[in-house]
Specification:
The complex is a heterodimer. By secondary structure, chain A is mainly β. Chain A is built from no helices and eleven strands. The model of chain B has no long low-confidence stretch (mean pLDDT 94). Classes of the chains: A mainly beta, B mainly beta. The interface between A and B is medium-sized, with 24 and 24 residues.
Chain lengths: 113, 115
């Protein structure tokens, strides 16, 4: 049972344009959400997070939007740069217990120069 | 600040053999995680330690996988005997503690191929 879903395995975007990566979840107990970026042969690197009490969090070129009623979050990258080409994982966590992360399957973003 | 260290980076073994992976977390991080990432999937938590105690091992196949963190610092993950479906990247991560907002920092992973 895939509790966190990233339905687009890949995405190509022109440099300078907006990249939008989507993530859906099924467990209403999730209250904290994160995005990680992964380059080949490296471990995932934390990018940005959002708590369920917010609907938007911004950090430079990266913005995460959360729609709790739709159980949907998205990551916007503006403007996209070739160095953003990587696999992006969304993850979700509850706010009690072990706080463990449940990861999606990832979306491979390619930013074309 | 040094990151999470893992070794070896790559390992090829025959099925039914045993293998061990090592992880050294970021200094001062009390919580350590082992994840399995199968090709095309996201990382799946196998086991979580808080200091040298197990917090969650609900997804660890305990008939063949074992892990320890004896002194509350570095950790080893062992597979014995290995199966073909164990081919994956094994990621170690650490965080300062447990709680909302505790960022997990990942090592580069060990890529295991079971033939």
């Amino acid at each position: 049972d895939q509790q966190v879903k990233q339905n687009s395995p890949s995405l190509s975007v022109q440099e300078g344009r907006i990249s939008i990566l989507n993530c859906d979840y099924t467990n209403s107990m999730f209250d904290y959400f994160l995005w990680y970026k992964k380059y080949p042969a490296e471990g995932p690197t934390f990018l940005i997070s959002i708590s369920s009490i917010k609907d938007k969090n911004e950090d430079g070129r990266f913005t995460v939007f959360l729609n709790k009623s739709a159980k949907h979050l998205s990551l916007h990258i503006v403007p996209s740069q070739p160095g953003d080409s990587a696999v992006y994982f969304c993850a979700a966590s509850g706010t009690s217990g072990t706080y463990k992360y449940i990861f999606g399957t990832g979306t491979r973003l390619k930013v074309l120069a | 600040e040094a990151g999470v260290a893992q070794s070896p980076r790559y390992k090829i073994i025959e099925k039914r053999q045993s293998v061990a992976f090592w992880c050294n977390p970021i200094s001062g991080h009390a919580t350590l995680y082992w994840y399995q990432q199968i090709l095309g999937q996201g990382p799946k938590l196998l086991i979580q330690f808080q200091n040298n105690g197990v917090v969650d091992d609900s997804q660890l196949p305990k008939d063949r996988f074992s892990a320890e963190r004896l002194k509350g610092v570095d950790s080893t993950l062992k597979i014995q005997p290995a199966k073909l479906e164990d081919s994956a990247v094994y990621l170690c991560a650490s965080s300062l503690g447990i709680g909302v907002g505790e960022t997990q920092y990942f090592g580069p992973g060990t890529r295991l191929l079971v033939l």
